[in-house]
C-alpha cells in the first residue's frame, strides 16, 4: 500500500484520462465500457483514481460519479485544477484565483463530493513545466483547503524549484510529473521527495500518447512472458517506494493485464538492463 498524506491507497492506481473521447475531448465511444473499466478498477482493489474536470471536459468526472457513487470509504479521488480546454482541444492555463475557486467547486459538483481528497495545481503547459512563480495560485488552493473543501494539496507538471516554492507555503502530499523508463529528468526530485514521505505520481508511465518501446523492455518482457507495459510498471514500483502508479487505459482487459503484470519481481540484472533505456 502507499499513502497520500494520511490517506492509505493502493500503490497501483488508475488514471482516468483515457476514458474521454479522442484527444481527451467529448464522451467515450463506449459509455457502458467506460463505466465497466471504472468498476473493474475498484473490484481489482484499486483505491486511487486520478482525474480532472478538464478531461472531456467534465466527461471523466461524471463517468466516475455514475460508475462509483456513492464511493466506498477506501476509494480516494485525486483531481487537478489550473488548466481548462478550448474548442480546438488545447489546454489553456486557468490559474487566476477566481478560475481556481470555480474549478474546485466544479470538481466537487461533477464528482458529487463535499470535500476533495487531493487537488493538484497543474502548472506549465502541454510542452512541460515552465519556470514561473506559483505563489498566488497555490495560496488560493491553501485558502480553499482551510475552508474545508480540500483535504490535501499537490502540484503537477512542476519544476523542482516550484515544488520547493509550494512546500515553503504549505505541505504537499504528492507531485505528479511526467516520468517513465525513458523520461528520467525527475530522478533527483523523486529521491528528495522519498526522504520527505511525499508521493511521486508519474504521468505517462507507459509513454502516454507515444507508447514506450525499447529492445531492453521487450527482452525483459519476453523472459517473464508478460507485456512490455507490465515491465515498465513493475520497474516504476521498484524505482522508489514513494512512487504511485496511475496508468491509463480505456480497456478492462488492459487494466487486468497491467495490474497482474506489475506484480512481477524484477531482478537486479533485469533492472540494469532496463536502466539503459533512458540514459
Ligand atoms: N498532470 C498532467 O498534466 C497529466 C498529463 C497527462 C496524464 N495525466 C494523468 O496520468 C494518467 C496516465 O497517463 P496516460 O493515460 O495519458 O498515459 P499512460 O498511462 O502512459 O498510457 C496510456 C496508454 O497506454 C495504453 N495501454 C495501457 N495499458 C496497455 C496494455 N496493457 N497494452 C497496450 N496498451 C496499453 C492505453 O491504451 P488503451 O486505452 O487501448 O489501453 C493508452 O493509450 C492519465 O490517465 C491522467 O490521469 C496527467
UniProtKB/TrEMBL annotation:
GO MF, any single term: oxidoreductase activity
List the Pfam families hit by this protein, alphabetically. Answer: Aldo_ket_red
Q: Does the keyword Secreted apply?
A: no
Record keywords, A-Z: Oxidoreductase
According to the UniProt record, what class of enzyme is this?
oxidoreductase
- NADP-dependent oxidoreductase domain residues are 13-275
Any idea of its EC number?
1.-.-.-
Q: Which CDD domains match?
A: AKR_AKR13B1
What GO cellular component term, any one, is given? cytoplasm
Extract the InterPro entries matched here.
AKR, Aldo-Keto_reductase, NAD(P)_OxRdtase_dom_sf, NADP_OxRdtase_dom
SUPFAM superfamilies associated with the record: NAD(P)-linked oxidoreductase
Q: What is this protein called?
A: Putative oxidoreductase YdbC
Species source reads Actinoalloteichus hoggarensis
Amino acid at each position: 500500500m502507499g499513502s497520500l498524506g494520511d490517506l492509505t491507497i493502493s500503490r497501483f492506481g488508475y488514471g482516468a484520462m483515457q476514458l474521454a473521447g479522442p484527444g481527451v475531448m467529448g464522451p467515450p465511444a463506449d459509455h457502458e465500457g467506460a463505466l465497466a473499466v471504472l468498476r473493474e478498477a475498484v473490484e481489482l482493489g484499486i483505491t486511487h483514481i486520478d482525474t480532472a474536470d478538464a478531461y472531456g471536459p467534465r466527461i471523466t468526472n461524471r463517468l466516475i460519479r455514475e460508475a462509483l457513487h456513492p464511493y466506498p470509504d477506501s476509494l480516494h479521488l485525486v483531481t487537478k485544477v489550473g488548466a481548462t480546454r478550448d474548442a480546438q482541444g488545447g489546454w489553456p492555463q486557468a490559474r487566476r484565483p477566481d478560475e481556481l475557486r470555480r474549478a474546485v467547486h466544479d470538481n466537487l459538483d461533477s464528482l458529487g463530493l463535499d470535500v476533495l481528497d487531493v487537488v493538484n495545481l497543474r502548472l506549465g503547459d502541454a510542452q512541460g513545466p515552465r519556470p514561473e512563480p506559483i505563489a498566488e495560485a497555490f495560496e488560493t488552493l491553501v485558502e480553499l483547503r482551510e475552508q474545508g473543501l480540500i483535504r490535501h494539496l499537490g502540484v503537477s507538471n512542476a519544476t523542482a524549484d516550484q515544488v520547493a516554492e509550494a512546500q515553503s507555503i504549505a505541505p504537499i502530499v504528492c507531485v505528479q510529473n511526467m516520468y517513465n523508463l525513458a523520461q528520467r529528468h525527475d530522478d533527483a526530485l523523486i529521491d528528495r521527495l522519498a526522504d520527505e514521505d511525499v508521493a511521486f505520481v508519474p504521468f505517462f508511465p507507459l509513454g502516454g500518447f507515444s507508447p514506450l518501446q525499447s529492445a531492453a523492455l521487450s527482452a525483459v518482457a519476453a523472459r517473464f512472458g508478460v507485456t512490455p507495459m507490465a515491465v515498465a510498471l513493475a520497474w516504476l514500483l521498484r524505482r522508489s517506494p514513494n512512487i504511485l502508479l496511475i496508468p491509463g487505459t480505456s480497456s478492462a482487459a488492459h487494466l487486468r493485464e497491467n495490474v497482474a503484470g506489475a506484480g512481477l519481481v524484477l531482478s537486479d540484472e533485469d533492472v540494469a538492463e532496463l536502466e539503459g533505456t533512458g540514459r
